[in-house]
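ugh ok so i messed up the first submission bc i forgot one of the chains. this is the corrected input, ALL of the components this time, i swear. 356 residues overall. if the numbers dont match what u have on ur side tell me asap before i send this to the collaborators (the ones from the other lab, u know who)
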Amino acid sequence: MSQTPIEPSPATTRAAFLNGLGAAWRSIFAYVLVGNYIGIGALSYEFGFSLPWMILSTLVIWAAPAQVILISTLTTATLLEVAIAVGLSSARFLPMVAALVPLLKAAHTRQFQLLLPSHLTAISVWVEGMRMLPQVPRAERVPFYNGLGLGLLSAAVIGSVIGYALAARLPPLLATTLLFFTPIAILMSSARNSTTLIDRLAFVLGLVIGPLLAAQKVKLDLMWTGLVAGTIAYAVHRLREKWR
Amino acid sequence: MNFPMEPYLALLLIGFLPSEVWRWLGLLFGRGLDENSEIILWVRAVATALVAAVVARIVLFPPGALAAVPVEVRLAALGLGFLAFLVFRRSAFAGVIVGEAVLIGGAAALAP
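and heres the new structure output, hopefully the right one now
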């Protein structure tokens, strides 16, 4: 078997990108993101940021928790404090992107071609990408993922503009349902995504250990939860392989 | 110290950079790894557990208006939403709709 790198034709690349874009809008996350970012748009209005700044913050940060931190603390905390809080909230991207890269790259993929997919990686895009990519031909995965990511990113931008326009007119009960969108959609999509013991175990352990560490006021609790729960899930998987 | 006149500079320096640097590190770390390698299995488990912890955090220590809904209602909405997901042939839409309905119903019923 030859391992000659075969670059897909521009037409194939375009079709894969459009497939990704379509998959984004068929995903429940497109609608969750619209809802979630309505809240963030309203928040940035309340804190006095301009609409172009708000849109740019979604395009360049593309991480809802980091954006909420930046928007709500920029006017009150020191710059260093804000930068550290943003950095801590986004540390999850390291293992996510690292796990994505081997699934994404083909023999002909250059490192710079992975810059856009890695920037487009947010929880929603990652969860959907990890689920869908195995069904996409390897040579078409980068354009497919770019389409998926840009589709979901555009949903977020649309939501943030709506929220900015609606601003303080949002009734509290509606705000509640929008905020609940994010956790329940991640739960559903991860459940659909988890077919192996290690995935399921990691998710359930994360649900249990996360609040325990947070209640103990452990610093960097999200990172520690990932490391502890992920390592236990991996260890159980290894033991099971051994006993087989 | 803050940047009232330079919100765009602040966006790039303390919004974009501290967030994006983790993605770049992930690219460096993931390069040269095989998707079925043992380390990627572990890294993937770590990332999955982290995502689960984010879910737990939002439900148990919620932001803004969601905090006004009692924690029992929030947990019931998550649990019944998951049950609906299982009952309706693993449909994410069904799970989200049932979960949100339980949340609204519970919040309205328990409102003072």
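quick check: Chain B has four helices and no strands. that seems consistent at least. Chain B touches chain A through 77 residues (CB under 8 Å).
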